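Ticket reopened. Same input as before:
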Amino acid sequence: MTLDELPRGDRAVVTALDIRGGARRRLMDLGLLPGSAVHAEMTSPLGDPTAYEIRGALVVLRREQARAVHVEPEGR
Amino acid sequence: MSTDLLEEAARLRRGLPDDVGDRIVESLYTDATRLAETSVDRDGAASRLTVDRALDRVLTHRVWGFVAMGVLFFAVFWFTIAGAAVPSDLLYVLLVENGHAWLLDGFAAVGAPWWVTGLLVDGVYLATAWVIAVMLPPMAIFFPLFTLLEDFGYLPRVAFNLDRLFARAGAHGKQSLTMMMGYGCNAAGVTATRIIDSRRERLIAVITNNFSICNGRWPTLILMGTIFVGAVVPPALAGFVAAGAVVAVVILGIGVTLAVSWALSRTVLRGESSVYSLELPPYRPPRILRTLWTSIIDRTLKVLRRAVVMAAPAGAVIWLVGNVHLGDASVAAHLVTALGPIGWVMGLNGVILLAYLVAVPANEIIIPTIVMLTLTLGAPAAGAAPGVMLELGDDAQIGTVLVTTGGWTLLTAVNLMIFTLLHHPCSTTVLTIWHETRSVRWTAVATLLPLALGFVVCASVAGVVRALG
Amino acid sequence: MATPLPTPGVGRTPEPPDAGGACASCALAPEATRLARLGLDPGRYSHVVALAGNPNTGKSTVFNALTGLRQHVGNWAGKTVARAEGGFSYGGVGYRIVDLPGTYSLLSASADEDVARDVLLFGRPDVTVVVVDATRLERNLPLVLQVRQITGRVVVALNLVDEARRHGITVDVRHLARELGVPVVATAARRGEGLPDLLAAIEQVATTDDPPAPLRLVHHDPELERAVATLADQVAARFPSLPNTRWVALRLLEGDPGIEAAVRDGSLGDQAAPTVGAAG
Ligand SMILES: Nc1nc2c(ncn2[C@@H]2O[C@H](COP(=O)(O)OP(=O)(O)O)[C@@H](O)[C@H]2O)c(=O)[nH]1
Ligand SMILES: [Mg+2]
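Engineering reply: fixed in the latest deploy. New output:
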């Protein structure tokens, strides 16, 4: 599944980034690499960007960006 | 000769798989991860503090998030308005009333010609003293409060809460951060747009930054809110209503920012939106004393110095246009008469428009300019000598002068508040826009668009109010 | 497009060091009395120090602590967008120090990040202090590695260790220093913790005649390796004084517009020839 589908409060591990070039690099700058653990921490009150905890930082991604990140959810 | 190096690079690149860049970068990040894993002992630590989690739950809550945002910003303005009143009055008495009188006595004692006294004391000194009395106290309160919010880590949360609105408007999420900078100074806000990577979205942010009210404009809003809007309710409520009026203009500014961004991104600045990134830092307890110290020294005094530098020559110009006569009336009177009809259409008056012409270099001096012009022009009718305004003790008396001598109404004040939001950027900001965009066209758009909007909105408000009687 | 750094050795003679400095917010411990904050006017200086790092890691806080200036500090990424310069003197030697906008990497695109990259790459400072966030080391190390690929004159300031302690995070400073081949100093710049050690490390790196070599890029693709080697030879022929030709070659293979522009207008060579680094 992709990161935008990860329910709030759940954890997952990144498996792949389905995006090229500058945008991919920016995601990697923010700590999103295959193998990174992510935690969907909170969603903006207006419903769109979501803040994910990634490698100790709280990183905000808009839905269309999160859609490019493939993840494997972690059973809780 | 150096281009063959580039050609060689291009040739070699064609022989490589086309995701080679991504692979190189990825291996770098993998190395970094490995190095971090061998160096850091997390010791089962929660990566985010419970306090931070709890705070975020409230500050980004569907309901409480917006309530908190409103309350925090309202409180900042309320403290500014309520706290500035007394020191402003004291400074006024000291600098404008007494200081001006002493200087007049001094100049009279050495037998200075009337026009020297007029130009220096009634013009330069008075305008400068006025700017200090009006601006220093609110800024000395506003900046430290705002800096405390900033230091705490709250601003990115505002960006997080409002991002969807910006996304819908076709703007970059970081535009809310450059807006925040604009609330201090638009020139700084325009420079801050460098954090936006795409040119298209950066231009949108540059053009709309002017709709964040900068510190040069806060005093005008606060003063209008206090003496006109606050005055229509019982005194006990006046402070709240005044702060509410200011917040309303701020919200209008956010609305205009979104609307203009939307319009630009759908017309002249169409295109793909670029990569978005925002990080929410941990909350950090602000260091209060340090913040007070730096924001007073740096922001307040710096801005004040600029205002004074602008006010001194403006004071001379005001005195000159008020006292140099062409035919039967002063230059100012001619100009005010000429600008009168446009002013009327906009629900303002000729004096206000003339003040905006004189105050092109800096917004800070609008109110002093308006009051001085009103007094200079209206004085004969009120029975005082031109250019003399000793009787103004406090805000209420400024209001009295504007109403009785200038013929102001609540409509004039409200439209002045709107026009304060919607008019051309100050000259420093225009220069900065040119510097950052290197484009005469976009600088012109950024300068004239707000002015056109201001004209339309003020004229509409005036038309509606007049139609309703 | 190169951003030249000031040339050392010009400017007025140093003022008598006023140990402790005049700023009310001095957080430095008394051991730091070898430090004199020189504010905006570094007087005569021998070394140029650049402060790099991810956004919001405390670069401006370090800058302020060393210079006594009040560069804007705020708790969000993006408040520093242009470089700021100041000076200090340490052990009687003048240093000019440049505070840079935060950057996640030297490969990205926004204008504030370009400022940082140009200074590091073309300005060739004597010491690059990479300020990293001890609580988010994984996020910060890619930049450290990229800087290390350009130069060996690097000090890593592991900042915010007070926050790391609060979070129960410990970083093995010695291991990190060994792996990176450069000094790593734990600091909490906001309280002045670790700054004396940081200054000592800066001095050591600035004055050494034998800095560690730039990290060699490792990639395991023979095709790519061949291309890099070929191009690096040509870069070396064209810009003989450039120390990190492999890095430049790799950037050119990727089509990095900033580097291409620097090749086209020759600024890659200009800055490299009369190197600032040789003054130490
Ligand atoms: N607790 C703590 N906070 C720090 C330290 N250094 C900086 N800060 C805070 O971190 C935030 C970012 O600092 P700043 O110097 O502006 O970072 P820059 O973006 O790298 O220039 C500010 O709120 C500082 O007060 C430190 O050592 N400890
Ligand atoms: Mg900074």
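Chain C has ten helices and eight strands. Residues C 59-60, 79-80 surround magnesium ion (ligand 2) (CB under 6 Å). Please confirm and we'll close it.
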